[in-house]
Design brief:
alpha/beta; eight-stranded mixed β-sheet; seven-stranded parallel β-sheet; 19 helices; about 35% helix; about 15% strand; disordered C terminus
């Protein structure tokens, strides 16, 4: 039976107190940095409150579409279903009419709520909801509306989610950091007013109706919830043409000073990056070879727990260059499947990320921002952090990808988390912070420009320079013991049942196969005397029979449709679309021809005429 960690036990106790009417608390803030085990908290709190009849449904809002599946998986994990005694299921919902489709809640994204705020607000007004908001620090407080310090998109997210916070029965707010890089307060959190010459605005830990739960580095290490991090700092030279087309250079990134930004921009796109990629790739390959030998795997056989490499690139064009470089070092028959790209321009990006998480292949993933936050891939043992971003929350998220304990990778002592990074002053400052800071800061800086870390937002404009060349000159390693920001014990993904949205997808595919099979059978056996026989026509018939398109059906409705198809012939029901203007219009659109004659009521041939 799995055991709850310290912060999970605390949230469980708070949820039980709310369920039994022993407290007026309705807001729970979980300050657990990436990988510390946040994903179980909505399950714990939702199960307790729904069993007590305090809530009807659960809504979990995540910052990116790629995280919706992981939220679904948290509710269907069989180990925790047994341990917590729950049978709840959430589905990854689009902005459709029925968000839950017969289940106990839904998972959505900031962007989806902002695109249809009234849809979600009406749902919250119809039912009593527990609202779980993941990575709350992405949402700036709406009363602090200086547009010069934040992206307009983030403010729109906050304005759309605020009514849901106000309408929910209880709220679980989760974040890996309690500060924003732009210095703004975070949505909904209770702050003390700055007094006198104080330069920080602190969270009010004693605010009425609030419970605040944290998870320190010491606790995480003591519980072996995280892996120690080994930083591989690579130094090098760089030269470039500045805006006036004058040649500039530095002899060491670690001593670039005011030229750090331009030197780093150059290094990430020239020979220095290639050298760091080569070192990270070599180290990961050797690590995988050792694991293969320990597991006695034969050539060509893959398994979990071998270790993987995540490469974080500065932009999409450079990510493509990195991918080509890595594939050039691999055998041609393996490169296409072993190294993959996940960027926003790629249509299959989410499928690639899912395969990287759940399957032995691919072993190398190149991404920009899609995979750095919330990616639950415990096999990652190496990270090549080839990015110019230096904000503490962003780097903590990136490094957290490698520090989760992998149940397939041997004992805790055998596992490793190796982070390769440029040896510039700002990354070194971050590394020292990781070593020395033992708690999560519960404060935000008062409104001022962020100058100490000059390139902490991905939207910063690239410097107007032309990179010439760069070279790696030195590599040194330092091992530190990170905090909960950097890891968590992962569950065995291989034993998870299908999530609701995955089950819906499989059932829809099965329905499509059954419809197509009836089309082929009827055409080959000449079972229909007159009237159209085709996939679109039979789909239209099924829609009339079930009174709903299968894209709008829930799990029980999809299963009922399959049962009906197994017992009935669609050709016997063609009369349902005779004279149907909607079918007429869609059929004409499909064929792009003149209006086709509508089918008459079908007449089945007798066996004597066949």
């Amino acid at each position: 039976m799995p055991q709850l960690r310290t912060h999970q036990r605390m949230v469980s106790g708070i949820a039980q107190a709310i369920a039994h009417g022993q407290t007026d608390i309705r807001d729970v803030l979980a300050a657990v940095t990436p990988g510390g085990g946040k994903s179980l908290l909505p399950v714990i709190m939702g199960a307790a409150l729904r069993q007590a009849g305090k809530i009807d449904r659960i809504c979990w809002i995540v910052p990116r579409d790629s995280l919706r599946q992981q939220a679904e998986e948290a509710f269907v994990d069989p180990r925790w279903r047994e341990a917590l005694g729950h049978s709840l299921a959430l589905r990854a919902a689009e902005n459709g009419r029925d968000l839950c489709r017969g289940l106990q809640g839904y998972v959505t994204t900031y962007q989806a709520v902002a695109a249809a705020p009234d849809l979600h607000l009406q749902e919250f007004r119809r039912h009593r909801y527990l609202l779980a908001v993941d990575e709350l620090h992405h949402l700036p407080a709406v009363f602090d509306t200086d547009s010069s310090t934040t992206a307009e998109e983030e403010t729109s997210w906050s304005r759309s989610i605020l009514p849901l916070l106000e309408s929910s029965v209880a709220r679980l707010l989760m974040s890996g950091t309690l500060e924003r890089a732009d210095g703004r307060p975070i949505l909904w959190l209770p702050y003390r007013s700055p007094q006198g010459a104080r330069r920080v605005r602190e969270i009010d830990f004693k605010a009425p109706g609030w419970a605040i739960v944290g998870y320190s580095r010491r606790q995480a290490l003591a519980e072996k919830a995280i892996l120690p991090v080994t930083f591989g700092a690579m130094d090098g030279t760089a030269s470039w043409l500045d805006a006036e087309r004058t040649t500039r250079w530095v002899d060491a990134l670690s001593k670039a000073g005011e030229n750090t930004r331009d030197a780093l921009f150059t290094a990430l796109r020239t020979g220095f990056a290639r050298s760091m990629l080569r070192e990270a790739y070599r180290s990961c390959r050797e690590h995988r070879a050792r694991r293969r030998a320990e597991l006695k795997l034969t050539a060509g056989r893959e398994a979990k727990g071998l270790g993987k490499l995540l490469v974080i690139a500065p932009d999409q064009d450079t990510a493509r260059f990195y991918l080509d470089t890595l594939r050039g070092w691999m055998p041609r028959d393996q490169s296409g499947r072993m190294a993959r790209l996940a960027i926003s321009d790629s249509r299959d990006a989410h499928e690639v990320v899912a395969a990287f998480r759940l399957r032995p292949e691919p072993a190398v993933l190149v991404s920009v921002a899609m995979a750095y936050e919330g990616l639950d891939a415990p096999e990652i043992s190496h990270v090549a952090c080839l990015t110019h971003i230096r904000s503490r929350p962003w780097l903590e998220q990136a490094i957290a990808r490698a520090t989760r304990v992998d149940p397939h990778a041997g004992s805790y002592e055998q596992q490793r988390a190796l982070i390769y990074h440029p040896s510039d002053e700002l990354f070194e400052r971050f590394r020292v912070m990781v070593e020395t800071q033992q708690g999560t800061r519960a404060m935000v800086k008062t409104r001022r420009r962020q100058q100490n870390l000059p390139f902490d937002r991905t939207s910063d404009r690239d410097p107007e320079i032309i990179p010439l060349e760069s070279n790696a000159t030195a590599l040194r390693f330092a091992t530190v013991a990170p905090g909960p920001d950097f890891g968590a014990t992962a569950r065995d993904q291989g034993d998870l049942p299908l999530t609701p949205s995955a089950a819906e997808h499989h059932l829809r595919q099965r329905i499509g196969q059954l419809v197509a099979a009836q089309v082929i059978e009827d055409e080959d056996n000449n079972l229909v005397a007159d009237g159209p026989v085709g996939y679109h026509t039979y789909n239209a018939v099924l829609k009339r029979v079930m009174n709903k398109a299968r894209s709008e059906m829930g799990l029980s409705e999809l299963e009922a449709a399959i049962g009906w198809l197994e017992r009935n012939r669609l050709s016997d029901h063609l009369h349902l679309i005779a004279g149907d203007p909607q079918y007429r219009w869609s059929s004409r659109r499909k064929t792009r021809n003149a209006l086709a004659p509508m089918p008459k009521a079908p007449r089945r041939r007798s066996s004597a005429t066949q």
